[in-house]
Automatic annotation (TrEMBL):
Residues covered by the AMIN-like domain: 120-245
Superkingdom classification of source: Bacteria
Low complexity bias spans: 33-45
Protein name per the record: AMIN-like domain-containing protein
Length: 245
């Protein structure tokens, strides 16, 4: 009887030791209060709606190249570019150039490109953000056409008929694309709507002035001659024009 009790006690001790070992070998659980992953650097808010802290930035800046004037730099009548924009202090991804901090300006912003063939504009859209209105010109393919952005005298003219095109507001901000088109290979318009009336705090109306012989030109009727900035974005390929409120 004592021998049987001894074996029983020994079995109980062995079971407890084994359970303790198994408990020690259990993998640690993942805590529920893991901090959120921070948003990537060198990004700008998605166009079309005001940015919020709950939505991380998603758009990266397209490489602007070094042969021409940097995006956001200004050019005067002598054709010489002013000092480049502040590229920021954060790291820049390979193949990207930071233009999210492009200088706000009232001067002409120009990027010349002559690579054939023409690049097709696929859409135009607008939205408002805190402190500025955003207009986005999207293009098919991996590259942007050349462009010039500047305030122009009013009234502006349609490039085909030469007729005056009335735009509301006290200023007209013109965006002229070269080596660009707004139709597909079948001759159908890729941006059928020629005017937009978003009635935003700064941008009151957009009107297409030209889509002819490799040139596509839009004009923005603005409430005043407000500072603007230009960004080149990728995935998809876009030229972004922000106008301060």
């Amino acid at each position: 009887m004592r021998l049987r009790q001894g074996w029983y006690a020994l079995g109980m001790v062995g079971g407890l030791v084994l359970a303790g070992c198994e408990k020690q070998q259990e993998p640690p659980t993942v805590p529920l209060n893991v901090p959120a992953v921070p948003a990537p650097t060198n990004t700008v808010p998605r166009e079309g709606s005001a940015p919020t802290t709950a939505t991380p930035p998603v758009e990266r800046v397209l490489d602007t190249g070094s042969a021409q004037a940097p995006v956001g730099s200004t050019q005067g009548t002598d054709g010489k570019a002013s000092a480049p924009v502040d590229a920021g202090n954060g790291p820049v991804d390979a193949g990207s150039a930071l233009a999210a901090d492009a200088t706000w300006t009232l001067e002409t912003v120009e990027k010349k490109r002559s690579e054939p063939p023409s690049v097709t504009m696929s859409s135009v859209r607008t939205g408002t953000h805190e402190g500025y209105d955003r207009t986005v010109f999207e293009f098919a393919g991996p590259r942007l056409p050349g462009y010039q952005v500047s305030y122009v005298k009013t009234p502006v003219q349609d490039c085909g008929s030469g007729d005056d095109v009335p735009v509301p507001g006290k200023a007209a901000l013109q965006v002229r694309f070269t080596r660009a088109q707004a139709h597909n290979e079948q001759g159908q318009a890729t941006v059928a709507q020629r005017t937009f009336k978003p009635a935003l705090p700064s941008v009151l109306e957009l009107a297409r002035l030209c889509a002819f012989e490799g040139e596509v030109t839009w004009v923005l009727g603005t409430t005043r001659r407000a500072p603007f900035r230009v960004l080149e974005l990728t995935n998809p390929t876009r030229l972004v024009l922000d106008v301060q409120h």
